[in-house]
Amino acid sequence: MASEEELFASVDALLEEEPQLPPPAERARLREAAGITQARLAQALELKSTQSIKNWENGRSEPTGSRLSAYQRLLKGWAAKYPAAHSTPAAPVAPAVVPQPVVPETFTGPGAPEEKAAAPVEAPAAPERPAARPATSSRRPARKTAKPAVDPRFPHGPLAVLDGDGSAYGVDGIVLDCPATTVVELVEWTLRESGLGAPKLNRYGKDSDPLIVLTASAAVKLGLPERLEGHEQRRSLRLPEDHPVVKQVAKAKWQLTQRGFGPWARIYRKAQGRERQCVQLAILSWDALDERSWPGVAEMAPADIARVLGVYAQRVITPRGSTAVSGLELMTALRPPTKPERDEQTGNWVSSYNPGSLGTEPMDPAPPEATVEHPVVVSSGWTGGFLNEEAYQWVRSVDTLSDEECLLPFAVGLDLNTAFLAAAARLVVGLSAPDHFHNVKFNPKIPGSWLVDLSHIELDPRLPSPFTPDGARPTGPAWYQTHTVAYAQELGYDVHPIEAYLRRETGAYLDPWHDRLKNAYVDTLADLGVTKDLTDTEFLAAMERHKQVDPALAAVLAAIKATVKGGVGKLRERPQGKHYKAGERWPALERPTWRPDIRAAVISKARVNMHRKLGNMAKMTGLFPLAVLSDCVVYPSPGASPLDFLPYAASGKPQPGGFRLGPTPGLAKLEGVQEMAWAVDLMEKGLNPARHIKGGDAVLDEGE
To answer: Of 423, 424, 417, 421, which is closest to residue 667 (Cα–Cα)?
Structure first.
């Protein structure tokens, strides 16, 4: 039990705490009792608009810094003049909005960001302007899942969307008042007063820097052009170094990364101890949110944009660029390259290698794993061939179609949910530099690249070859990743590698990346009504309508899928820019995550998984595919539903080994239905029916 002295100290601490603001409804009552309008109060507190007063009085946000002290002083004076009608508190009336738990106080003292207020006890005031496109008009009730604990350092969440009137819209409906009129002021407000940021994802990692998303009006207010114009895509453009805003940033002793001031600009100073000084900006009107990865988000109202990005930040990572960049950053955030370790001789803490990570130094690939323009290839004059582990782009020869298949009335497309994410599960990859071997015995447990002749393997021509992306039979020795060679053994064939580049240190580097993205994908689908407990018929119906249930969450789902493909593609980012010359190093090569061998391992495993399912389907149903594009396969079918041809046991349960429906990564969903004559016509023209059903998103993006 605490002593009397300890109890007195605790009580004294409470007495010394800064007084809390009265409830939002009481703030409005006191102002109205004093006969002061919101506009007059905003003028007295030197606010740029009355929106901040409205937010304070409906509980959507709280004042900070000197305005907090002034507002407290004013309310205290009004409370003495205009006390409540009842001297004793009356029984509370049921609120118009269900109150949420009050976030405990996290900062004290002037200038420190305040905690999120309790939910309002009266309906919030109507917004000054309607949303550009309401993203929550058909929103389903959210699942009752436990929210992560609020980090006291970041009470207002990971990000905010800044509008031209100075309102910064955060997660959970919070709105902050941002007085900044320049980019420099915005950076300093974000770091000192906003309370924005997110805790690290791994105990050896770094906290996520706060993200400020600028609407077009906010960009113009801060002195930025509304649009970036040029011959290249806007996402590739940057402000010139002599632009006034770039000069302001430099004059204030802030720095920009090598990417410059583009759609995703990072402004920073050298860290002081453990405290990072870095803010990420995203400019909406400069195409920061690509329509392919964030469908419809750029056109949403600021509050809805904040909701979309906030859910993504909570479930994946605070965006730091395109979804491809974020996918790569997530790998490092979950597997930091270093950890602190005590030096036994000096007793000091030093930075040391974190086992299981890729370390801090870039690693050159083996020549067959590199690209043709890589310095390893150009400087050595390598002519021994390259890995060609890519996703399927195969269409079946019309000559192999039977009369029975041609008479089936439909062509049905099945798409595997995040097939490359499923392939990353429990995937052992190399962590050390490659070693060169000749006439080595094949070992399926060692990741690497093997030169082996698989041309003697003859398989059913109605299926694509598992060894090549175009499905054609190999014509001689070629380089393959371990999973491809292991599958040849699985099919019953002997393999005798001629040479190999192998890695001695290995690990499941992508496991935490897979687990986090899988949970994000499954949870978001569940919020859209697509859950694991649905029957196959219910699942197809739920997938048919899930995009209309909640457009905001549907956009999050699209971004998660793009994060998977983009992150894998970034592992082998090619040089960009028309002035590049073969043999020169490009920026991507300087990061430890430039690992084309890991990309090849993911794609190899995904393609092998696809072929295994295709073979099992042929054995169980006698059906052969018409085309395969990446993770989409097209089958002839007697009906317009996959239920008409997928294999089911007598009990009604799906047969294991073939394609199964469901929301889990690696399982299938209906992608499209067409008449069989349409598919045959495309095949006769040498076109891929899967590409036309799927829309052609097979490429694992290496750019952005």
So the answer is: 417
Pairing of strands 211-214, 668-675: unpaired
Query: Does 462 score more than 90 pLDDT?
Result: yes
- The C-alpha atoms of residue 175 and residue 55 are separated, in whole angstroms, by 7
What is the Cα–Cα distance from 280 to 678, expressed in whole angstroms? 48
DSSP 263: S
Residue 503 has pLDDT above 80, yes or no: yes
Distance of CA 260 to the CA centre of its chain: 22
- Backbone dihedral angles phi then psi of residue 378, each to the nearest 5 degrees: -65, -45
What are the tokens at 128? 């000054």
76's tokens: 């205290």
Neighbours of 247 (CB within 10 A): 11
Are 667 and 414 a contacting pair, CB within 8 Å? no
CB atoms within 10 A of CB 494: 9
Question: Cα separation of 314 and 148, whole Å?
Answer: 8
| The pLDDT of residue 389 is above 70 | yes
Separation of CA 634 from chain center: 29
Strands (E) across 568-637 are located at 627-629, 632-637
| Residue 563 near residue 316 (C-beta atoms within 8 A) | yes
Tell me if 548 sits within 8 A of 138, measured CB to CB: yes
Taking the C-alpha atoms of residue 207 and residue 448, their distance in angstroms, rounded to an integer, is: 34
Pairing of strands 211-214, 275-283: parallel
- From residue 495, give the alpha-carbon distance in Å to each of 386, 466, 500: 19, 15, 13
* CA quadruple 172, 178, 183, 189: dihedral sign: negative
Task: Map tokens 């593609």 to a residue.
Answer: 569
Give the model's confidence band at 149: pLDDT under 50 very low, under 70 low, under 90 confident, else very high: low
pLDDT confidence tier of residue 161, bands split at 50, 70 and 90: very high
CB-based contact 637:613 (threshold 8 Å): no
Q: Are strands 506-507 and 338-342 parallel, antiparallel or unpaired?
A: unpaired
Angle (CA) 622-627-631 rounded to 5° is 100
Segment 294-307, tens digit of pLDDT: 999 999 999 999 99
Decide if pLDDT at 704 tops 50: no
> What is the dihedral sign for C-alpha 485, 487, 489, 494?
negative
Give the whole-angstrom CA distance, residue 124 versus residue 137.
17
- Residue 124 pLDDT more than 80? no
